[in-house]
Fold:
Amino acid sequence: MTKNFRTIKFRIVPLTPKLWPALEDLFGKWGASNGCWCMYWRIGGAYRGRCGENRETLRKIVKRGSPPGLLAFDGDLAVGWCQLTPRDALVWLDRMWWFQRVDDVPVWSISCFFVRRAYRRQGVMSQLIAAALKTAKRAKAPALEAYPVNTTAPKSTSNIFTGTVSAFAHAGFKEVARRAAARPIMRHDLKAIAR
Structure:
């Protein structure tokens, strides 16, 4: 039976040490995307070939107490993840010329997603974005930034781990820069969101 995303309301919560086993189950033995364990925007290409070390690095970040992202659950099963953190924690964004800062606003960033295969195209990403907006607002971030793929641009990548322009536009994000044809920087002003 195919699930209809219009009827599934996922429970979305910050990743805490208690929920670490759920994230491990979601990411599986391959660490979500080629053993990355959401380290790419933190350390760049150095993440390659160090799956176990990446896992332990993320685990230490989680243990420090400030949740580095959100988990979506269907019942007790973790079905989706988004990394959500102050942009300052993702130093590699400034190493990529098309994602360098557009100003000095201390934004938070949604830098990547991972959705369990059986739950793709069911609204998990959209619900994670909505929850991320609320979480960043509660943390008093002035704005939330994202770096999605414009899937309608010629020669755009099919690797959409950073999300899609359409999903962010639907959530109210606006393009604030585009230095590469298919890779805009999108931002949501959080002052516009009610508590």
Summary: Strands lie at 11-14, 69-74, 77-86, 108-115, 143-146, 174-178, 184-189. Confidence is low (pLDDT under 50) at residues 1-5. The radius of gyration is 16 Å. Residues 112 and 162 are 4 Å apart (CA to CA).
